[in-house]
Specification:
single chain; 129 residues; seven-stranded mixed beta sheet; four-stranded antiparallel beta sheet; 1 helix; 11 strands; 4% helix
């Protein structure tokens, strides 16, 4: 059974950096995309970044574009989210996700949580001002 495990969360001051890691084990077959989402209490899960697995294209929400970078391109290594110039509004639980059925690639949409089939347990990121 597939399992995603995130790590690297923590507390940092505004302007600082963190790198989140996600290890994906028990892959059922092909991975089409990997994504990062975040959620704060009382709000819906929000798209942060995604990457075509084995491809060149990456996608970012407007709120993190230019500050965050998603990386990773093969099944043997983790997928990373490098977060620079962090702001208090980046505070959230961050989730790693995997599309193993192709929903993202077939639709061309990488920002919908429902298009991802597997999820990690989340890691807390807290940015203080």
């Amino acid at each position: 059974q597939e399992q995603l495990v995130e790590s690297g969360g923590g507390s940092v001051q505004a302007g600082g950096s963190l790198t989140l890691s996600c290890v994906f084990s028990g892959r059922p077959g092909s991975t089409y995309a990997m994504g990062w989402f975040r959620q704060v209490p009382g709000k819906e899960r929000e798209f942060v970044a995604a990457k075509e697995w084995g491809g060149e294209n990456s996608y970012y929400s407007d709120s993190v574009k230019g500050r965050f970078t998603i990386s990773g391109d093969n099944d043997k290594n983790p997928v990373y989210l490098r977060m620079n110039s962090l702001k208090p509004e980046d505070t959230a639980v961050y989730y790693c996700s995997a599309d193993v059925t192709g929903n993202t690639v077939y639709t061309g949409s990488y920002s919908r949580p429902s298009f991802y089939d597997a999820w990690g347990q989340g890691t807390q990121v807290t940015v203080s001002s």
